[in-house]
Fold these 2 entries.
Entry 1:
Amino acid sequence: MSLLPRLAAPLLALAIAGCAMSPARDAAPAPVVLISLDGLRATDLDLGLTPNLARIAAEGVRAEWMTPSYPSLTFPNHYTVVTGLRPDRHGVIHNTMRDATLGEFKLASKEAVSDARWWGGEPIWVGAERAGLPTAAMFWPGTEAAIGGVRPRRWSTYDEKITADERVDRVLGWLAEDASTRPRLTTLYFEKLDKASHDRGPDSPEARAALQTLDAVIGRLLDALRANGQLDRVNLVITSDHGMAPVPPGQAVAAEDMVDPADAESVTRGQSVGFTPRPGRTAAAEAQLLGRHAHYECWRKAELPPQWKYGTHPRVPAIVCQMDEGWDAVSRSSVAKHAAEPAGGSHGYDPQLPSMRAVFIARGPAFKRGARIPAIDNVDVYPLLARLVGIKPAAHDGNPAALTPALAAP
Ligand code: AMP
Ligand code: ZN
Ligand code: ZN
């Protein structure tokens, strides 16, 4: 008799005994709930307004902050968190895009958002579903498209009218299911803080109220999980996509003043501004745009600052201008409106700026209790998720070691 069967028999007996002793729920791997609070700044956790997020950090892990990828916008960064790929690699290079074959991509276009051809790489739910593990989405950019022919088992069309409480209730319903259908991975998304911060500024009473509302919603999720005896059996991962910077009224540049519209067309406005020179007008467009200006700087796509790891994807326009913190690029017709409106907020600035820092906190059986870890990069979340879900990660740009100090059993 070889050594292997002699060792295997007692081990098998132990495993069977272990299963018989614990209820099926205990034996099942812990579900992962990935939450995004759009526009939550790293420093928002220190305002004393978020007791529930503070408790998650105290009972789990908090990274000093999480650096977003370039550009620090919603769709590129949500999709980076779930693929571990830089926007330049996964192809969702901006919230507004133009593609030679696919045409225009806008957040408001249901058709574009649900067209898998815009979404490259393999998001975590696709890998999980391919491994036979159930997944569910209470919104997340990308979950409405059949990427590689696969959607989360449960998903819905993005609808802001579904309240934050309803979203949490749906997630709680899924988590209460039997292990055979309970999602191994669930996403949960909230836009409320981002909206209030854009409209009134990140330090406004309106943004503070949105922050407190969302913290209370997270508190409801925690209370319900605790009441079900599930709190210590779920791995909660709470992230944001980017931070937010105040924008004083009138800090706006007209895109038409950046370059003559007869020489280049602006594909995007806002903070990361892309221009496509008109046919035969490249030299004229470059002469007006390239280099440093009063409130922005422009580069050819191949010459962008290397730390942004951006500019090789065909969807990145030929010239990219980066607005300085606190400045917006708008159409000329909107300049007067910008000056007349109250102070607001924007993101889309250099990801290295402290104001753009996002959040990573986590709690659950996989995580240490009360650990503080150094800043991470948002490409590092995907290999962690793959590990928690129990699948082999697809190719990614992250560092799997970055989050091992957060794990109870690295
Ligand atoms: P932004 O601030 O422009 O980077 O984008 C934030 C906005 O994205 C939020 O106000 C949401 O309304 C919107 N958003 C988030 N998820 C989706 C989605 N799945 N489909 C369409 N819009 C979305
Ligand atoms: Zn966002
Ligand atoms: Zn936003």
Note: The chain has 14 helices and 20 strands.
Entry 2:
Amino acid sequence: MSKRVVLIGHPVAHSLSGAMQQAAFDELGIDARYELWDRAPIALADAIAEVRGDDFLGVNVTIPHKERVVPMIDKLTEEAQVTGAVNTLTREGKRLVGHNTDVPGFTVALDKLVGRQKMPRQAVLLGAGGGARAVVYGLIRAGFQRVVIFNRHLHRAEGLVKHFGRSAAHMDLKAMPWHESIIESELAKTKVLINATSIGLNSDVSPIPGEILAGDLLVLDLIYKRTRLLRDAEAAGATAQDGEIMLLHQGAAAFALWTGQAAPLEVMSEALAEARAGGVRSAEGEPAGEDEAVPEAAAPAG
Ligand code: NDP
């Protein structure tokens, strides 16, 4: 019997994950179908009950359910527990295990960004949503000693700092109000800048002015395209990287959890590029067609 893997989100139409995961199943001859389930929050509990059935191999969870799903799961991995967010489910009999593969996805992206240099110890993070949670945990695990979070709504960044209280007890994790002058002075002390806001996803704007970007910065934008921020960073002589590697590797980690097999990365990467070139819009937070008119508020959850 063909196995089922579902993406539960709202909305989920035309997900890039569908193309990426189906290509991987087909490549390895795994008889599985990747389905998109658009479920409003009120229908989430029923969907979670349904995926406990034997025909399901696994599940992806995306916006707006990543945090809401946590209490519905029987067991959480350390990453899911610490971040308080789940993007992948596996089954152990009728029990569901919640994982957060955005964390390893981010870690691969960070390693690639830093390259052969020594891992820096200080970072500035823009944004405090679901993606930012995976980033903060990834930075903690990479040994960062000081991470300053700026967010439009300061209370959300403060909540995130509080959430990580114990895991970040040994370091300086703080939230600061979004003022350009404060961001500029923090950037002067750091080498790594990460954008985990959705600014730039649906419009060609940058969260911060290009003039405050120094040439020695390493800049990672979680958004899966060459954003204004990344172009400004390159113009300043900085190293810039988009969210493709994180997206690919969170998907590869999920695939390995479901199937017990290493993900065919090249095939998945090609499927992503093809889907994107075809103008497919995503539910995972990454844009598809450059011209997609998705309202900023409807943006993502990685
Ligand atoms: P959330 O909806 O949880 O968070 C959105 C973040 O963007 C919040 O910090 C929010 O601030 C901020 N924001 C949105 N609009 C504005 C605005 N107009 N002005 C200032 N701040 C704004 O989304 P996620 O954390 O899940 O995703 C954030 C980004 O990360 C997305 O662009 C997504 O593409 C990307 N992503 C990529 C992944 C990948 O695999 N490459 C994985 C996960 C995310 P506030 O709290 O004040 O509203």
Note: Residues 244-259 form the longest helix (16 residues).
